[in-house]
Amino acid sequence: MRLTCPLCGSRDRREFTYYGDAVYASRPGPDAPPEAWDAYLHLRDNPAGETRDLWYHEMGCSAWIEVTRDTVTHAVGATRLIAERGGGRASGAGSPAKKKAPSKPRGGRA
Amino acid sequence: MPSLISKSPCEDLLPVEAGGVKLSEYPVDRVSSVAPFAGKERASGAALKAIGLGWPKPGQSISANGARILWTGRGQAFLVGAEPAGLDGLAAITDQSDGWARLRLAGSGAETVLARLVALDLRPGAFPEGSVARTGLGHMMMILRRDGADAFEIMVFRSMAAFAVRELHHAMTACAARVAAG
Q1: Distance from CA of B139 to the nearest CA of A (A)
Q2: Which residue of A has its CA nearest to B93?
Q3: I need a surface site. Which of A31, B81, B138, B161 has the fewest CB within 10 A?
Q4: What residues have CB less than 8 Å from B138, skipping those under 6 apart?
Q5: Segment A65-100, tens digit of pLDDT
Q6: Would you call B74 and A61 a contact, using CB atoms and an 8 Å cutoff?
Q7: In a mutagenesis test of the A interface, which of B135, B156, B157 is the best target, namely the one with the most A β-carbons within 10 Å?
């Protein structure tokens, strides 16, 4: 399996570390209610179809990457930098967290 | 204050040679991590231009006047062989000189040797001179740069110097044995 790092290009899967659903990169804001934190930590969608995962290019350029994947066809689609997707907090040098994370994360039974 | 002995990372280990491929160590030189502050990316690039370099694109390096700058990640580059002049207030500068072992693998079989440890296409068409990759050397993190038609610069953490030399030397002797066996 190969993943495309938006910076480094196509690389072997062994260079990356998996961090679960990409919602993990969107922490609730500091004022978020406990329910939002509960959902952020514990509740995840289980879609049949497109889902987004969080990967870390650990054995490479250290970028955090959102990978779109289809759970039905197993197709791995687009990748983009977490820093450039907006909505979540940016990570890494040179990109301060300007945008506030949404207080209501995606997913969960609400 | 005890008198400390100044040693390069691979002193007593290099150079080694096998099958026409030579593994040696670059002379110890200044290595600085340059990470431009938010909004100062252009100004940092201009300051680096002033010393003949510039900000490298992902996977690339720029060399001039015996100095070079290597892209090492998002918003980060390593300046080698030059003082990080003119970057005050523009970028976070971290001295990395003692943190890295810088090896040079050279010879007509260098690509074949690296193919045993690196999961990248390193043919000249895919990885031309000046190209940079952050990837793995076996189990180690590495910054790799093509230094010439048959030469590579390999940067690993200084703590990994002996292991990197052993792994590379092992691959070199294995490739040499394969050639010798016809």
Answers
A1: 9
A2: A93
A3: A31
A4: B117, B167
A5: 999 999 999 999 999 999 988 754 433 333 333 444
A6: yes
A7: B135
